Amino acid sequence: MKIEHNSKMSITEGVIWKQILLYFFPLLFGTFFQQLYNTIDAVVVGRYVGKAALSAVGGATGTLINVLIGFFIGLSSGATVIISQYYGGKKKEEVKDSVHTAIALAITGGLIIMLIGFFGSPYALKLMGTPKEIYQDALTFIRIYFLGTVFNVVYNMGAGILRAIGDSKRPLYFLIISCGVNIILDLLFVVVFHWGVGGTAAATVLSQLLSACLICMVLMKSDDCYKLYLSKIRFHKEILNRIIHIGLPGGAQSLMYSTSNLLIQSSMNSFNINVLAAWTAYGKIDGIFWMIMNSFGVSVTTFVGQNYGAGKQDRVQKGIRVCFGFAMASALFLSVTISIFAASIMGIFNKDPAVIREGLKILHFLVPTYCTYVLIEILSGALRGMGQAVVPFLLTFFGVCVLRITWILTAVPVWHEVRTVIFSYPMTWSVTSILFLIYYFYYKKKTGLVNINL
């Protein structure tokens, strides 16, 4: 499979809104199919195993997985930023060293996460107060899932490398293939072999192995400066330091989101099984919003990174405005659509009337507040693309993590209701959006977006 010139897209020239959408849609569909992995798991076990199994493959397990893998993906975003900047600045040798350092980091990080997740998950599940009726299924699912962490991390790093140079199509193709395999294996392992939640986890791991192999094959077959040589996979100290400098705040930011969500999940565990199943189902529906926002976030990071590296500050500012407009319109459209078809969507995951009733309460409360988050994703992505990662971390730390944890620890014990717990989302999104807006205008006025020598 030889890489052709039209497989990557120059985003340092041309019509901005067209280029952003041409980059965004393959990224969105790719994120959709990645999200579909867990959604299919939830649908299959919810329909064929039961609501206890549905709670086991989402909820606590999903939150724990996001804590570890989310941290590393945030850290690896540093590689995407510097590769996009070097590629935009036509620094081929630096691109090559960055690619091999990034893959070395993915393999090492994946192995570390696998060990921590496999041996630490029993303690984490108990610490979160996971109900006894779902504990064993949750432990089985999460341990098998963590055995495939290396494949997951290598795929995400490889996909990040391709997206950094403007290629968002190939990661999409590979996810479509692996997602199709995941659906087939889910039905085979759960419906035919009756392996329960262990079968869904095994299907996901095998599918992730396939996507990792495909992404590595493309990198190895490339004839451009980002070509991967297995013999050259190693850490380049200066590049690794830059990746960590830019990516560590992003990883810490993801860790903070996940940590606060762990606390929220612990609060949810104090309610009945119907609420837990409904929260798990809502999490899959909510994933549609997050994949759209994440796709716009990655789009603006890559667009800003390449144009910032090329010294085109005008395009940087216009690109940010265009991405924000598209993201806000998407959030509003999604809020209206999900609200209208709420009952039918909840019924896809479980037919129990009690579960649907609890799910509708959650959905109708949170979905209309999506627009309060948009600024966070767009401005934090833009700032990372310019190499500014520390301030987004600090703003998120105080605006999301500290405020959300404070709310959960103080308000929820007093008003022990589901709505009290989930109110922490729109409240912290609104506050953090205001903080990001204030800082962005301050940074823009102070620096004029002057290019930094790489």
Automatic annotation (TrEMBL):
Location relative to the cell: Cell membrane
Transmembrane region(s): 20-37, 64-87, 99-124, 144-165, 172-195, 201-220, 288-310, 322-350, 362-383, 390-410, 422-442
Main location per the UniProt record: membrane
CDD domains: MATE_yoeA_like (cd13138)
Keywords assigned: Cell membrane, Membrane, Transmembrane, Transmembrane helix, Transport
Cellular compartments per GO CC: plasma membrane
One Pfam family matching this protein: MatE
InterPro entries, per database record: MATE_fam, MdtK-like, Membrane_Transporter-Flippase
Membrane topology category: Multi-pass membrane protein
Entry GO MF terms: antiporter activity; xenobiotic transmembrane transporter activity
PANTHER family from the UniProt entry: MULTIDRUG RESISTANCE PROTEIN YPNP-RELATED
UniProt-recorded name of the protein: MATE family efflux transporter
Organism this protein belongs to: Anaerocolumna chitinilytica
